[in-house]
Amino acid sequence: MNSQKNFHPSARKQVAIHLLLDWVAASLSWLGLFLYRKNFVEAVKHGYQIPVNADIKLAIGLVAVPLFWIVLYHLLGYYNHIFRRSRLRELESTLVASILGVVFLFFALILDDSVSDFHDYYWSGAVLLGLHVGFTLVFRLAWTTRTIKHVQGRKWGYPTLLVGNGPKALQLFEEIQNAKQAEGFIIQGFISMDAEIDPSLNERCRHLGPCHTLSEHIHALCIEEIILCPETESAPLLTGIIDQVQNEPVHVKVQPDSYHLVLGMAKMNNILGAMLAEIDFEVMPHWQKSVKRAIDVAVSALALLILSPLFLIIGIAVKLDSPGPVFFLQERLGYRGKPFKIIKFRSMKNHAESGTPQLSHDHDDRRTKTGIFLRRTRLDELPQFANVLLGQMSLVGPRPERLYFAEQIAASAPIYRRIHRVRPGITSWGQVKYGYAENVEEMIKRMQFDILYLENMSLGLDIKIMIYTALIMIQGRGK
């Protein structure tokens, strides 16, 4: 099996270097602000030169302020895709983050100082912004330029698969191989979309197999990039291939003449190299995902603490109602299709299911008396706050299914695989609108709401769904 270290250094190492450079830049800019205020602001206020001595506030600032910047960069997603940098993107991200960070520091720390003229506040903020942008950009641009040169010189690159087997794939292969400045694509072979394979492509590039083996080769070859180049007659297969790889840790690009087939998911980010549109599987801006995760952790930790007496009461009721454990663990499919154990209060008789998996329904005699109440009020879902804390689930997201039913849903509606782009949720739009499903047909109908949620994800929508879920629990309208 190939290793990524054969193509470029460890991503962790690269991130560590960026962290170090950002820390140094933040420390220098804060030190520069400290010296400015000592030599100008305080000197004017007191009427004499203030000696620069060891200052405990400076020491604390040189630790706390750089840490603040690192956290801010992380929340904004700066340390993602660390090898795919451009100087223009560095400039843009640095300016946006610097303005946001300096505004926060201005109100949190700078306004706390005493000055002789209120204009000194503005000058202090401007000095901090200028120093921070300057130092940060110098370090980042220097390191990014080094990375770009290594990629263009074919010292670093990304293991890449071509998906296509006709003249378009051959033309793209030759363009990539003959480019004076490489774009980082190190082609490992091509995946065929139909039986008609271009002989010239077969001679020059390794044929790995048909498109249904794509996922297998992604893992076997540690693929990081996939380029879709279908011929006109095989273009209808494109959507299915995208659904097949959307939960894999790869970047997917497509030739512009196929752009209309994935309209809404593709974006252009390259002007001088091969004309490729990148398919964007991100459902939310990174900062919103960070805030969503922070809300998940905070609310779940608080809920487990506050609701612990209710957990005890429910646990006793479950135990007295029927023999068996209080909690019920069941394997479900989570983020990117990875299985995990979901935790619920047991609402059915012990060992109620054996053999073929079954879904519950309104007249299911496997349910206990306590279980009927728990399902109507959705209280059986409360232990899933623990799943949220473990990072397996979110407060709001598509409901996770068992592999047995997920395969049946995907067979009838391949679009179902898209819900694995995000963490599953304790509650969902489908759960609010449709409730528990009693068969695969109902699961497919509920899935439509989850796909709709996926295409409209936002923090505001999450809040609305949580409010409606609370109303359903209070009114006992859970199906």
Shape: flat
Strand order of the largest sheet: 3-2-1-4-5-7-6
- Written as H for each helix and E for each strand, in order along the chain, the element string is HHHHEHEHEHEHEEEHHEEHHEHEHHH
Put simply, the count of helices is: 16
Q: Based on helices, strands and strand pairing, what is the structural class?
A: alpha/beta
Computed CA radius of gyration, to the nearest angstrom: 28 Å
Mean pLDDT: 87
Tally of discrete structural domains: 3
Assembly type of the chains comes to single chain
Give the beta-strand count. 11
Biggest sheet overview: 7 strands, mixed
Spatial separation of the terminal alpha carbons: 49 Å
Helix content: 40-55%
Question: Could you characterize what this model shows?
Answer:
The protein is an alpha/beta fold and 479 residues long. The chain folds into three domains: 149 residues, no CATH class; 122 residues, NAD(P)-binding Rossmann-like Domain (Rossmann fold); 190 residues, no CATH class. The protein is 51% helix and 11% strand. α1 runs antiparallel to α4, α3 runs antiparallel to α4 and α9 crosses α10. The longest helix is centred in the first third of the chain and has 36 residues.
